[in-house]
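**User:**
If convenient, please work through this fold.
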Amino acid sequence: MEALYIPQLVKVVDKTQVISFRERLPGLETLTPVQGELIIKHQGNYLEVKAQAETIMTLTCNRCLQNYNHRLSVDTSELIWLEDPSDRLEGAPLEREVGLEDLVESLSPQGYFHPSEWLYEQLCLAIPQQQICQLECPGIQLVEEPKANFPVDHRWSTLAAFKTQLPDS
């Protein structure tokens, strides 16, 4: 997906750009191409971005370490404020406290919006934190091997003799 020049969105019908896609995103290893639809609407001082997308990824189970396929899908939206970063930082101290309301995404009104980067971020956020192949996954099965009489290194013989004197617990 190509980057969109934000001032150009104002000239599009209804100030809305609809992008249907079926492609692989760089940096995201998937079995199938990411497919779906992205809607970017210019609302004056912010962009309203909506996406529906899905793909299939191979994940590794945290319990049994086996690979399994997982359908990854997103149905999300975000508001991205349009403000020039130089306006916000002009005269600001080098260190300042950042309030919760300042933790929002913002772009320059004369800049570009990169749909593939935004979609990559949304898909990464949708990857499950706890990757379990199935709810009943027992984990790694430990197999107890019979104790074999391995030859003891003569340097450890004193320790082996001491071990036989200890009571079994």
Summary: The radius of gyration is 28 Å. The mean pLDDT is 86. The longest strand covers residues 67-82.
